[in-house]
Design goal:
Elements lengths: L2 E4 L3 E4 L7 H21 L6 H15 L4 H6 L9 H15 L8 H12 L20 H9 L10
Antiparallel strand pairs: 1-2
Helix pairs in contact: 1-2, 2-4, 2-5, 4-5
Length: about 160
């Protein structure tokens, strides 16, 4: 993990993971989205729907799925549909890593994905609009169903 938001309203950045200023700004923005969501919605951090939604928003609005980050993570070069898949994958990993949500992360993500991916507050639009194609929403949800993570390898 490169950073974290503590419900005592603290943000932690891991300097041993953050490799340049641009990435630090992305991590900081990701964590600030969690802080904003916590203040705005009084998130219940034991409600996995809330966790999944704030993770979708933080990944989407922070630019966590920029092409250069995906390439650095060893992901294939993004093609049509990869932007939304990146958002869903990264949000799924973060939700899965919450011990309370590990067993239900796929259902939680699918339950909130459509609404949360279109919630841009406090901005008027997303950092980068993913290649969201409504006609492919079912295939995106099938993608979530097929996500599997190993405890030792989480990208």
């Amino acid at each position: 993990f490169s950073g974290g938001y503590d419900t005592d309203q603290k943000i932690v950045l891991c300097e041993n993971i953050i490799y340049n200023r641009d990435f630090m700004e992305t991590v900081m923005l990701h964590e600030l989205i969690h802080a904003f969501d916590d203040c705005r919605s009084h998130l219940n951090w034991v409600n996995c729907h809330h966790v999944a939604c704030t993770e979708i928003r933080a990944v989407h609005l922070s630019g966590d799925c920029k092409y250069k980050y995906e390439l650095r993570r060893g992901r294939p070069f993004p093609l049509l549909g990869q932007g939304i898949k990146c958002i869903l994958r990264r949000a799924a990993i973060a939700t899965y890593n919450n011990p309370l949500c590990a067993d239900t992360y796929k259902q939680d993500l699918k339950a909130v994905a459509s609404a949360c991916i279109h919630d841009y507050e406090p901005f008027t639009s997303a950092y980068a609009t993913p290649d969201y194609l409504p006609e492919f929403w079912t295939s995106y949800m099938n993608y979530v169903d097929n996500l599997n993570f190993e405890l030792t390898h989480r990208k």
